[in-house]
Amino acid sequence: MTTFLGLPTAPPGVGHLRQEAPFPVAARQALGNSQLRANLRKATTTIRAKRAGVVSELPDWEQLRAAGQAIKARTMADLGRYLEQLEAQVTARGGTVHWARDAAEANQIVTRLVREAGAREVVKVKSLATDEIGLNDALAAEGITAHETDLAELIVQLGRDRPSHILVPAIHRNRAEIRDIFTREMPGVDPGLTDEPAALAEAARRYLRRKFLTAAVAVSGANFAVAETGTLCVVESEGNGRMCLTLPRTLITVMGIEKVIPAWTDLGVFLQLLPRSSTGERMNPYTSMWTGVTPGDGPQAFHLVLLDNGRTAVLADPAGRDALHCIRCSACLNVCPVYERTGGHAYGSVYPGPIGAVLSPQLTGIADNASLPFASTLCGACFDACPVKINIPEMLVHLRARHVDEDIRERGKPSAEAVTMAAASWVMADPARYAAAQAASRAGRLLRRRGRISALPPPLAAWTTARDAPVPPRQTFRQWWRTQHRNPPEDTP
Length: 493
Ligand code: SF4
Prior knowledge:
Elements: E1 3-4, E2 7-8, H1 23-31, H2 34-56, H3 61-77, H4 79-92, E3 96-100, H5 103-116, E4 121-124, H6 128-133, H7 135-141, E5 145-148, H8 151-158, H9 175-185, H10 197-214, E6 217-220, E7 224-226, E8 231-236, H11 240-246, E9 250-256, E10 260-261, H12 264-278, E11 286-291, E12 301-307, H13 311-315, H14 331-335, H15 337-342, H16 353-364, H17 381-385, H18 392-411, H19 416-428, H20 431-441, H21 461-464, H22 477-486
Parallel strand pairs: 3-12, 4-5, 4-6, 6-9, 7-10, 9-12
Antiparallel strand pairs: 1-2, 7-8, 8-11
Helix pairs in contact: 3-12, 9-10, 16-18
The structure holds iron/sulfur cluster.
């Protein structure tokens, strides 16, 4: 059995990582929502253009990407040592480190710490790790209210909704919808609130300022943790995170173990890659860093919860572990033609889009998210956009193969798809068989209607439920070739 820090590898991840419905079913539903598609197209087109502009300014962008990739690979190769170094440094500077094997354990730790601080409310910085473990629900079950303070997360929380994008959780909402949510759900809001962005931001500011000034405990995630110094880093755009990280007496940070980086100098690489790839900015407006506890300044108790939740299982697969290199910039979502049409909810996990299609099935075990590796056209746009050069298309193919192998093992017999592929392989391996199959396929011309084949008989009918099948040509390529060589055309001058 693979071990991690001397312990057996963690069990599959639990929490908000699983699909409720297979991707094709959820995607079909999402595709019927034209408002969603319009919101997504507008938002992703804008972010893509901004990103392309700031990336083109850097002559050494490709070298930066290579450096980011190399730092992540080096970290994963020695993850246990860097995590122990991080623990030692945080502890030496007055913080406390907790190890959580899965979502349930992380939730128990945070709930206990909030109770020990005597709080019934917490403020939160936007954090995918806490979304992953379902922290808000776990706290609510214990009578503790969590207030999201990132504007988009607040919109999602007040709308009793789910995030649909890593960076812009409310990307599926337009401003009229946000105004409706605020007037319906935000206590004390002006009933005449307009949908002007400045007015919406002002309403959120007034609501949140009261929470910041009264909360005794804050919960955050982390973008990076520097092992050599024990420094945590959060980057954000609104300043709400800075309020959370500095005003409450107790700060609890929940961080996936893959967020550690070895040295302070490595941070310089990622702080150039991340803002350009995520919001299309040269530098993000707020970069907060803290190291343990500083007497008389900021939170006087700091707890770091290091979350596994399936990550060590991902680490154990050399062909899949690069998914842990992700810095959650969301560039792959913004260029993905599948994501742009279906939005994030169809993926069923807090990690949507291309990175979600490779990360979620590995965190949970492929059987629990079996359709996600197939939620891609393999166009490669995600690989080109990724600032740490994660080869997502290659990983998708690897996960598809793993799924097929696991499926055959479990069922004790190959699926219809595997049988079809094996038959195709047999036919294509022999020229005579291939020629015979081509000749037979021309019978398909009988099924054409107005130049198209829109309905095939079972079991091929599944193909034509969503697309036309190509009409076989009158003549195969081999027949055409023979004709040409029997009566070679005269050379044209
Ligand atoms: S996989 Fe790459 S592009 Fe996608 S979110 Fe992660 S770092 Fe960004």
